[in-house]
Amino acid sequence: MLEEAHLKDQEPKEADGFRGILIDEDLAKEIGSGRSGARHQTGTIEFIAIQVLQQIAHTYRLDLESFFYVLLWMCARRTWEKKFECKLIDRPKRNILTKWYTGSFDDIADANKGYMHEDDFEKILMEFPQAFDCVKPACKKIRGILFPYKKGLLIGTPSDPPEKLYDPIIEALNSQAQQIKQLPK
């Protein structure tokens, strides 16, 4: 399970040129290796994937889903709390992401599923500060990759190789990063 605390900003010169790194991988496991060492449900409730909340077997896709929730949370919640490129006075009055940690696992899974539908997903994006409008296209693209709509919202792991999800998500992030670099300062 990925959570905000696992992402650490690092000076590139100290991390082989990388800007961000993942930490606390003590419960990580390789794909297909069975259960992790955890004796109970782990992870920050806001970022737990829908199928994990529903007690369905953990897959690589669910880690991508958790990463996506962290990205959305950082843009829609943490930026306001840290006053990063925004003022608290401009913060939306209603915060729909409270449904990501309120109620039972089933309630939270239902809320997450509902907000991953295209129309309701826009409600999450509306909670981003204006300075983060440049991130919205990547978020929309990733939502479409992770939650395709074919006779209903798909939330399961496809039988395709993992690259089928990883590659377009990485491309969406890289493409958006290039566009952001082009923005005037």
End-to-end span in angstroms?
A: 35 Å
Number of helices: 6
Mean of residue pLDDT? Answer: 78
Seen as an oligomer or otherwise, the chain set is single chain
For the secondary structure, the number of strands is 2
Helix content: 40-55%
Assign an overall shape.
globular
Largest sheet: 2 strands, antiparallel
Computed CA radius of gyration, to the nearest angstrom: 17 Å
Overall SS class: mainly alpha
Lateral strand order in the biggest sheet: 1-2
The unreliable regions are 6-10, 36-40
The SSE order reads: EEHHHHHH
DSSP strand content: under 5%
Question: Mind explaining what this structure looks like?
Answer:
The longest helix is centred in the middle third of the chain and has 22 residues. The chain is built from 6 helices and 2 strands, in the order ββαααααα. The relative contact order is 0.12. The chain is globular, with a radius of gyration of 17 Å. Helix 2 packs antiparallel against helix 5 and helix 5 packs antiparallel against helix 6. Strands 1-2 form a two-stranded antiparallel ribbon. About 5% of the residues have low confidence. The chain is 41% helix and 3% strand. The protein is mainly alpha-helical and 185 residues long.
Please summarize what this structure is:
The protein is mostly helical. Helix content is 41%, strand content 3%.
Write the layout of secondary structure elements.
Blueprint: E1 7-9, E2 20-22, H1 50-53, H2 60-81, H3 105-115, H4 118-125, H5 136-146, H6 163-182
Antiparallel strand pairs: 1-2
Question: Which tags fit this structure?
Answer:
185 residues, mainly alpha, two-stranded antiparallel ribbon, 2 strands, globular
